[in-house]
Amino acid sequence: MASAGIIGMGSWGSALAYALGSHGHHVTMWSKFEDEVKMLQKKHEHITKLPGVILPEEVLATISMEDVCSDKDILVFAVPSIFVRSTAKEAAPYIKKGQLVVNVAKGIEDDSLKLLSEILREELPQAQIAVLSGPSHAEEVGRRIPTTLVAGASDEEAAKRVQDIFMSDVLRVYTNPDVTGIELGGALKNVIALAAGVIDGLGYGDNTKAALMTRGIAEMSRLGTACGGYPETFFGLSGIGDLIVTCTSRHSRNRKCGYLIGQGYTLDAAMKEVSMVVEGVYCARAALAMAQKYSVDMPITAQVNDVLFENKPAKTAVTELFLRDGRIENQRLSWHKN
User: Fold this and answer.
1) What's this model's pTM, rounded to 2 decimal places?
2) 130 backbone dihedrals φ, ψ, rounded to 5°
3) Looking at the DSSP assignment, which residues form a beta bridge with residue 151?
4) Contacts of 118 (CB under 8 A, 6+ apart)
5) Please, which residues have CB within 8 angstroms of residue 318's CB and are 6 or more apart in sequence?
6) How wide is the angle at C-alpha 161 spanned by C-alphas 188 and 58, nearest 5°?
């Protein structure tokens, strides 16, 4: 059995603590908030972010970064993307050479346009960095509903170690060397999920949502390959798999935020109603900036930015997407003349 430290006590960190602890691993969780730590110590449940999921008694909670990092086979970074760099700086003094660090957050740093694994490599150069992603709502993992993930790392053995530790009778993990593709898939699908929520909030139907999701994966793949990812990754678990679940599930905070905006809420009011971090809002600007940097056409992402930050009416954004000039569906295909 492995010894795991989980940095972050949100819904996903708590779900992973449950998954690992239930499978016999030794788990220590960390939060910077003392009341959160006391709640986990007393109730073994995150009553606000993952209610109903009771963690095994053996799962420990601490406010000490040194305690959560020391003597661990694996460290899981489960903090929101906007806090990955600052948290890594705090953890750095306690992380030894060769330590396996796994990022499970999904996002892009707004000012630098760096992926979260790149941030961890900068702040923790002594560590071995991996990522874990895929279609996986915390609420379902906490109920032992069968779920499949993908572990990515530049080193095959690191990816296999993540795979071995997380695999169980209800959690199946694949490996993939395309860290860039995995991370971009996980980040960009949140932006598309916001748009999917808007579609639902406006009262449009299945046809519209299917079109959005299909063209959304096309956008994700275009930017991902321009950044060095592989097309196959975007048609796997961290691409279309994660896109499907985030665009359609009642558990999706990104979809819920978009739904409220489609219903007429302001962005601030929608985020307050969701009451958890909506990663797609933070990723939208960065995704558009990356598209401009690499000269990639991302019309859905552009319209999402206009709705979120430029007060464009959601219905106008949908209409403008449909009134774009006609084009071939796949630029790599062509008609052959006889």
Assistant:
1) 0.95
2) -135, 170
3) 132, 175
4) none
5) 198, 199, 202, 204, 208, 303
6) 95
Is position 256 annotated as part of the catalytic site?
no
Token digits of residue 43: 């109730």
- Answer whether 321's CB lies under 8 Å from 298's CB: no
Catalytic residue (choose from 189, 209, 256, 293): 189
Strands 147-152, 128-133: pairing kind: antiparallel
**202, 303 Cβ separation under 8 angstroms:** no
The full 3-state SS of the chain, as one line of letters, equals CCEEEEECCCHHHHHHHHHHHHCCCEEEEECCCHHHHHHHHHHCCCCCCCCCCCCCCCCEEECCHHHHHCCCCEEEECCCHHHHHHHHHHHHHHCCCCCEEEECCCCECCCCCCEHHHHHHHHCCCCEEEEEECCCCHHHHCCCCCEEEEEECCCHHHHHHHHHHHCCCCEEEEEECCHHHHHHHHHHHHHHHHHHHHHHHHCCCHHHHHHHHHHHHHHHHHHHHHCCCCHHHHCCHHHHHHHHHHHHCCCCHHHHHHHHHHCCCCHHHHHHHHCCCCHHHHHHHHHHHHHHHCCCCCHHHHHHHHHHHCCCCHHHHHHHHHCCCCCCCCCCCCCCCC
So what's the pLDDT on residue 332?
A: 82
pLDDT at residue number 182: 98
Tokens matching residue 229? 């990812």
Can you list the residues of the chain whose pLDDT is less than 50? none
Tokens of 154: 């530049």
* Per-residue tokens: 170: 């209800």
Chain mean position to CA 52: 23
**CB of 95 closer than 8 Å to CB of 124:** yes
Answer for the pair 40, 55: CB distance below 8 angstroms, yes or no: yes
Candidates 252, 295, 253; CA nearest to 274 is: 253
Tens-place pLDDT, residues 256-285: 999 999 999 999 999 999 988 899 999 999
Dist CA 220 CA 198 (whole Å): 19
